[in-house]
Amino acid sequence: MKRLIIFLCSCLILQTSPAQQYDPSKVKAKAQKIFTDGLIRAQNSNFTEAADLLKQAIAIDTNYVDAILSLAGVYGQIKNHDLSVTFYEKAFSKDTAYTKLYKLPYSINLAGQGQFQKALNAVNEYLSNPRLGETSRKAGEFRKKSFEFAVALDKKNADKNYTFAPKNLGDKVNSTESEYFPSLTIDGKELVFTRRVKGYNEDFFSSHWENNEWSNAAPLGGNVNTELNEGAQMISLDGQWLVFTGCNRNDGWGSCDIYISYLTPQGWSEAINLGGKVNSDQWDSQPSLSPDKRDLYFASRRFGGYGGSDIYVTHTLPNGKWSEPENLGPEINTKGDESCPFIHADNQTLYFTSTGLQGYGEDDLFLTKKGPKGDWSIPENLGFPINTIHKEGTLFIAADAKTAYYSSDRSDSKGGLDIYSFELRENIRPSKTLWVKGKVFDKNTTKGLPSAVELIDLNSKQLLSKVQTDEQGNYLITLPVGKDYIFNVNRKGYLFYSDNFFFSQHSPDSIYEKNIPLQPIETNASIILKNIFFDVNKFDLKPESESELVKMVQLLNDNPTLKIQINGHTDSVGKAADNLKLSDNRAQAVVNYLISKNISPQRLSAKGFGATQPIATNKTEEGKALNRRTEMKVVSQ
To answer: What pLDDT score does 198 carry?
Structure first.
């Protein structure tokens, strides 16, 4: 509101044109009194009352330009950009000279409508005034730069098929209180969010997707909600962990700290402070877990950063503790504030807000993608209308890579902030992410086994995810579509399990369930090596085989008395003698690789069986593919 009054005063002082049509001294006294009362209401942020009084003043004197300009300013304050623009234009039509300094707030409200080219024209007109003061010119130049950026980005993002249409999640989720910080489990069936209760306390609530609708939201069970404020939370994709922010607590290290709660049979556990390595003596907040729960991203104002708040990441160590947080670097963090990090289920696309990167005016949302070597791409502004001239907040994107959730006080809000969903524009989506879940167990006893589950990029050999099953052997791991993957399960005393997922050429919609029987290391135990690859009718190991071969080397090094035999098998296509020779050469190629890695030849043997031991029919392509296999058999321990 102060800005509105400043614009009014500067206009009255600087405007000296003898050709003006509007004369403030001729305004009716009754209108002036009501106008003054309206300004007082506006200064006290009573904008509804202020608007009513200003409209009364205008009704008494329809040429009262100051009242029309002030009413436009009030509507701008409450983000009603349409009415603000309407009344600015009405004032301009009364007197173009008297109102020319108001082209700046007019341009801002045009931008609020998304009319960036028109806003740019208006601010250029404003800046053409040679009598502008230094502060006014800087304000205009700042807006001009933002509008030029918006015009260029609009052209780049032009998509006639895209419509931004947020949908309120409804009365069962939203209330007359404010709801914000939405987060979901990977299956999209549980929504956890923060609700401001009784206008001051913050607690966590959840709703479940049942019968194609959200259930009535209820406070999280257990002990995580307290009389203190809990907020800025994220539930892990498997629904087992909840990380969040707690402020001004007895066990805190700074003003706000990051806490964790675990799901137990009795509900959510009491909050545990993540400690003085993760938290600092400053503000630490807005945590976001990677899908494998190995990385925790958060915002912090700790000393040593690049600006106000920066984004950091900490990693889980082999002992289960968190590492020293790492600043994400100057490619992401600026002299301004970076906050609200959200790492998508693809474990590669990070969304965050920034005041330091070029945007539309205040905090804008950006995305960056993690490369094969862990480096981050240049941040990309998400564009209008997700970003506006106002401050943007958190964004959560579901595993389908197109459904986004956020909080807003739109016109159909039930009260305060409500949670909405909308469809993301295609060029700012992460990778669609499926997932595989199941149980790892002992093949002989069927008892669940705590084990390590790894997902590796078949081409780059990069480890994308590594999760630890729970004590019963249950696991969940994400599978971003668009790549080919090696899937490994490891546990000491057992032969490793391997599989693959080929997603680079097609985009399946299947969710996979794999219950994995691990074979104890014992004589005659065998496994199929599903990630050993050869070209057709050749026996040279393809580069994609390396990750599997490395696992074999590790197994043999960890079990120095273990002796194995590599068995080669083919389908029935071609001559039997040729198939036998090919399978024998392929088995020997694996042995030769192991020898090259300093595994003793005395521990290794190779044998080809051609097509004599099929495990599926040779009448279908799928069956033939299963029969073309390489196996590892334990000869002795």
So the answer is: 82
Sign of CA dihedral 70, 76, 80, 84: positive
For residues 357 and 336, the answer to whether their CB atoms sit within 8 Å is yes
Q: What letter represents residue 391's amino acid?
A: K
Q: Which CATH class is domain 167-423?
A: mainly beta
Backbone angles phi, psi at 227, to 5 degrees: -70, -15
Residue among 300, 322, 148, 175 at smallest CA distance from 232: 300
Question: What are the tokens at 171?
Answer: 């009365």
Given CATH 2.60.40.1120, say whether it is the number of domain 432-520: yes
**Second CATH level (architecture) for the domain 523-637:** 2-Layer Sandwich (3.30)
> Are the beta carbons of 288 and 316 closer than 8 angstroms?
no
Q: What is the location of CATH 3.30.1330.60 in the chain?
A: 523-637
Q: Which amino acid is at 236?
A: S
Record the tokens describing residue 545, joined without a space. 């085989």
**Token pair of 625, please?**
């593919």
- pLDDT score recorded for residue 16: 40
Contacts of 200 (CB under 8 A, 6+ apart): none
E strand map for 131-240: 167-168, 179-184, 190-197, 201-210, 213-214, 218-219, 230-235
Q: Which residues pair with 285 in a beta bridge?
A: 299
pLDDT at 3: 39
CATH number of 2-156: 1.25.40.10
Spans of the chain below 70 pLDDT: 1-20
Q: How far apart are CA 521 and CA 448, in angstroms?
A: 17
What is residue 20's predicted lDDT score, i.e. its pLDDT? 54
